[in-house]
TrEMBL record:
Name the record gives this protein: Stage II sporulation protein AB (Anti-sigma F factor)
Domain of life of the organism encoding this protein: Bacteria
UniProt keyword annotation of Nuclease present: no
Gene Ontology molecular function terms on file: ATP binding; protein serine/threonine kinase activity; sigma factor antagonist activity
Amino acid sequence: MNQMEVSFSATLDNENFARTTVGAFLTPLNPTIDEIIEMKTIVSEAVSNAIIHGYNNNPECHVVIKMEIEDRLVRLVIQDYGKGIENLEQVKTPFYTTAKDLEHAGMGITIIETLADSLEIESVINIGTKLIITKRLKDHG
């Protein structure tokens, strides 16, 4: 099993860093372009949710990404220690958002669920939120 962990300031400027880091970590698996795009999109949505909703854009806070790869199964954990989610079922509803002024708001979890094989959300009010995402990359040997 190959694994990595990275922590970074909760600023939207670091969203690209998170996407690039995950993409680079996948490189030894020789993923398809579509798989890279899908994983980077998953990371982008999860990280921006942590920054915007978990931390209210507070750059003094940190987002943590943990990633494990075994065979071609990718397990991605994206975690914040922010305000948590009050209603987990409501957050899975397309277009539901607590940031109605943002463009494309309310689609992040739906996009992650669509692109991933599985998504688990663990959240405790004032403790934080952890997204556990799995995706199996295709065998193309």
